[in-house]
Amino acid sequence: MPAPAVLAQYEQIQPGLAERITAMAETAVTGDIRTRDKVADAAIARARAGQFMAFSLTLVALCAAVLFFVFNKPVAGAVLVSVPVIMLIRSFLNPS
Questions:
Q1: CA nearest 58: which of 19, 84, 23, 21?
Q2: Residue 95 pLDDT more than 70?
Q3: Number of CB atoms found within 10 A of residue 62's CB
């Protein structure tokens, strides 16, 4: 936005020009705000999708581990139990 004195000069040159400049500035700011809102919404959606995938993979690994223990395969069961535990520990150590 130009300084008020400059806007007054524009208005003297062509009546209504200062109002048009102000409207263009308002439109630009509104567009920036909408863009930032969309970016934030997309980031939230990505985070939720990532959390859902992590939960799903952890659940599958734990169910498979239980099945391996039931069928007397303790090594495979221990490996599959360790994966979710390691992922959980890693998430607490590196929260980003």
A1: 84
A2: no
A3: 16
Q: Is the pLDDT of residue 91 over 80?
A: no
CA 47 to chain centre: 5
Map residue 14 onto helix, strand or coil: coil
Tokens of residue 10, six digits: 């524009």
With 0-12 / 13-18 / 19 or more C-beta atoms within 10 angstroms meaning exposed / middle / buried, residue 40 is exposed
Q: Higher confidence at residue 71 or residue 61?
A: 71
Whether 45 contacts 37, CB under 8 Å: no
Sign, CA dihedral 84-87-92-93, equals positive
pLDDT for 54 equals 81
Using an 8 Å Cβ cutoff, are 83 and 63 in contact?
no
Is residue 53 within 8 Å of 59, Cβ to Cβ?
no
Phi, psi torsion values for 21, nearest 5 degrees: -65, -45
Q: Domain locations in the chain?
A: 4-93
